[in-house]
TrEMBL record:
Signal peptide: none annotated. This is RNase III inhibitor. The lineage of its organism: Bacteria, Bacillati, Actinomycetota, Actinomycetes, Micromonosporales. Residues 1-169 form the Macro domain. Gene3D superfamilies: Leucine Aminopeptidase, subunit E, domain 1 (3.40.220.10). SUPFAM superfamilies: Macro domain-like. It holds the Pfam family Macro.
Length: 169
């Protein structure tokens, strides 16, 4: 059974095999967590992303972690939905991001993974709903990953993730 932990901090400093970035479809880098990960991993990350992209919303693709410190070996690029009010399948697309990221992690042999709060920044997905989807999807997805860290970028995100984890625990 997978162990799920909620933490607040810098996802680029997580002690895991793979980190997930909340990518845009081009995989060339962006703002927020994606920009921070691209900056930490170095310029080869954008070149690698461009070589495999584009990536459709709800899907995930992997690249090496480049300049990130071990044990991080892989970056999994997950493209979340843009929030349009909730009536356009956004929840299903977001759940697919977490599910596909775990499937990619399994293909890579990763046993530990760190996720940001996908689509809650500029894509506008409500943080409380996103947290519930993240936790429920990780709990219900068959995976060989043993440890999942849900990394919050601020106290509000941490509270939503912790509440979702506690409610399903």
């Amino acid at each position: 059974m997978v162990i799920i932990e909620v933490v607040m901090g810098d996802i680029t400093r997580e002690d895991v095999d793979a980190i997930v970035t909340a990518a845009n479809e081009s995989l060339l880098g962006g703002g927020g967590v994606d920009g921070a990960i691209h900056q930490a991993a170095g310029p080869r990350l954008a070149r690698a992303g461009g070589a495999i992209g584009p990536c459709e919303p709800g899907n995930a693709m992997a690249t090496p972690a480049f300049d990130l410190n071990p044990p991080v070996r892989h970056i999994i690029h997950a493209v979340g939905p843009i929030w349009e009010g909730g009536g356009h399948g956004e929840a299903d697309v977001l759940a697919s991001c977490y599910r596909r990221s775990l499937q990619v992690a399994d293909e890579l042999g990763a046993r530990s993974i760190a996720f940001p709060a996908i689509a809650t920044g500029v894509y506008g997905f409500p943080a409380d709903q996103a947290a519930r989807i993240a936790v429920a999807t990780v709990r219900s997805t068959a995976t060989n990953v043993q440890r999942v860290r849900l990394v919050a970028f601020d106290e509000d995100a941490r509270e939503h993730l912790q509440a979702a984890l506690t409610a399903t625990g």
